[in-house]
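Run log, item B.
One chain of 184 residues. Sequence copied directly from the ordering sheet:
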Amino acid sequence: MIEARPLEIDGLVELRPSRWPDERGFFSEVWRDEWLAQVSASGRFVQDNHSRSNKRGVLRGLHFQTPPAGQDKLVRVARGSIFDVAVDIRSGSPTYGRWAGLVISADEWNQLLIPQGFAHGFVALEDGTDVLYKVTATYSPEFERTIRFDDPAIDIDWPLPITEILLSPKDQSAPLLADVKTGF
């Protein structure tokens, strides 16, 4: 069983799978294919990814893949917590360039469904955070794009000071949204 709650930007959905605890720990079905129709994902999941952030402040993003390799993502945290962000990059959308953010944590056991047409990024809020996410298209480097995490036109309110943010060289040199052809 899963509880679905739409966020303020059309297409973004927070999911909360049920957990059954007992004295040993808990059991949870974190995903079933039949839930796909419930949450309006555009395909079936074909790849699972696992990201570990050793330190608080590791920021990954804002990433997306252009068509025909666009991806729906289902993001969850197995250990630690993140502030997860999705930016609407669908040209013609009334919310183009707007972002929505959500704390996803192992304690809350929540997930975020991000459809194609959104750039995605997250910052680790704890050391040793493990993020797992399913995608509806395999990784295709030729279709991968990155947008600056601190683009002033998007104005994301990251929960950590900029001095605590740790970025990859690719993310450090990412262009602004205005300079990226998104394909959506």
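Observations after the first pass:
- The mean pLDDT is 95.
- Residues 79 and 177 are 31 Å apart (CA to CA).
Flagged for discussion on Thursday.
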